[in-house]
Amino acid sequence: MQDRAPRITGIGHAVPPRVVTNDDLAARLDTSDEWIRSRSGIGTRHHVDPGTATSDLAAEAGALALKHDMRSGGTGHVDLVVLATTTPDRTCPGTAPLVATRLGMGGIPAFDVNAVCSGFLYGLQTATAMVAGGAAGSVLLVAADTFSTIVDPDDRRTAFLFGDGAGAVVLRAGTEPTVHAIDLGSDGTQEDLIITPGGGSRSPGSDERWFAMQGQAVYRQAVDRMTRSTRGVLERVGWGVDEVDRFVGHQANSRILEAVAQRLGLPVERVVMNLDRVGNTAAASIPIALSDAHDRGLLVGGQKLALAAFGGGATWGAAALTWPDLPRA
């Protein structure tokens, strides 16, 4: 139905105040600022302090998106909350109901989605389908992760990559869509590429609590899957690569983003990057990058955007959007 077209009407993001620099990591690990920047493009990241949880960042980002929604003519209230996260406050229950309650919307449906770094795109598909199908007139989609709580701080291979943060968007039913198409995929045979081995029903008593990743294999798969998924979603909406004004990929590694842009034939200056300041914030990275780019004036109403991500599972996805004309703070 034409009046059920999902539109983005609000956006916001939040990162914890504590900044961790490459030099901070080099003071206790066998690494250096030059080594980290050359391999990832990351200069700083934000980490939560003890006592701060994923729900705290999620609620903060959600509140900002709802406030932005009101400035865009919305009500600041939604029918559904979807939270994409790999680091919930607890294994049970889900974290989304707590976030909804903290935002003053207790009683509405709320649930978690776990697709690791592809979580925002999986959540976006869920939210847009709910709006387009009439199950919800409005959805708050939050993606939040605190990977500093599951990454071994003494692991030189992973400790420098991750930051904590949350990003959120409000989607409402309208007459003209801003989200045009989403492509998703998964491959469970590659679950070991990105994994936290212990804590689940497979190994409940395991001491393997820390996140692990096969870096080179992840790089190859991420470049391949993000490229193919982006091409697929552009074909579905009939856009040529030259029509894409901004490419916003999962902010995992600058080399991955540059390689995807090169394979697509997209000029690197159209690639949105903020990982140099926030690191890899997992599911939160795309909405944080979108919110940051909007705040900096890099996104303008009417621009054609392509989004893409690769995450544990393995999971991947891409989306084609027309950026809405949203007010700035």
UniProtKB/TrEMBL annotation:
Residues 251-255 are annotated as: ACP-binding. It comes from the Bacteria. Keywords: Acyltransferase, Cytoplasm, Fatty acid biosynthesis, Fatty acid metabolism, Lipid biosynthesis, Lipid metabolism, Multifunctional enzyme, Transferase. Pfam families: ACP_syn_III, ACP_syn_III_C. Pathway: Lipid metabolism; fatty acid biosynthesis. It is found in: Cytoplasm. Its EC number is 2.3.1.180. The active site is at C117, H250, N280. Residues 234-323 form the Beta-ketoacyl-[acyl-carrier-protein] synthase III C-terminal domain. It is an enzyme of class 2 (transferase). InterPro entries: ACP_syn_III_C (IPR013747), ACP_syn_III_N (IPR013751), FabH (IPR004655), Thiolase-like (IPR016039). It catalyses: malonyl-[ACP] + acetyl-CoA + H(+) = 3-oxobutanoyl-[ACP] + CO2 + CoA. Residues 111-188 form the Beta-ketoacyl-[acyl-carrier-protein] synthase III N-terminal domain. CDD domains: KAS_III (cd00830). Belongs to the thiolase-like superfamily. FabH family. HAMAP family: FabH. The last Arg residue of the ACP-binding site is essential for the weak association between ACP/AcpP and FabH. PANTHER family: 3-OXOACYL-[ACYL-CARRIER-PROTEIN] SYNTHASE 3, BETA-KETOACYL-[ACYL-CARRIER-PROTEIN] SYNTHASE III. Homodimer. Catalyzes the condensation reaction of fatty acid synthesis by the addition to an acyl acceptor of two carbons from malonyl-ACP. Catalyzes the first condensation reaction which initiates fatty acid synthesis and may therefore play a role in governing the total rate of fatty acid production. Possesses both acetoacetyl-ACP synthase and acetyl transacylase activities. Its substrate specificity determines the biosynthesis of branched-chain and/or straight-chain of fatty acids. This is Beta-ketoacyl-[acyl-carrier-protein] synthase III. It comes from Pseudonocardia xishanensis.
